[in-house]
Amino acid sequence: MSRVTQKVVCYVIRAEKLLVFTHDELPLTVTGVQVPAGSVKRGETLEAAVRRELTEETGLHAAGVRFLGSQEYDLRPMRDERAVRHYFRVEVAEYPAEERWSGAERDPSSGGGPVTWTCWWLPLHDAHVLAGGFGALIGRALSD
Description:
- The chain contains three helices and eight strands.
- By secondary structure, it is of the alpha+beta class.
- The strands form two sheets. A four-stranded mixed sheet has the order 4-1-6-5.
């Protein structure tokens, strides 16, 4: 039986664009276009996990978060895991001046050396290209 993990997913929207990232040294066919997301740590609230993941992956700080809903996502055959994803619309305290900027994870949970990526703004009408079901609740993020 596959293990179940708790994850958070961040939708940051600005001027009809969605904050996304693509890995610098891994092909799109492996990682795809992603939004800030990650695992909830033991004892951590969902909101705390959203705030932490956003800052770790993009350098941005959440000013407010709104829960959109949850969905289960089966990661097999990539790995024997089912992720319960909790989706949030996130407002940030301050937006970067650049259209693209770098992010990195020094000690990835999957092991290995540092992983780098580029954060950028994807037009919302192209959000269908998000990898691995990350766009599942994007429509809810657009409603009031």
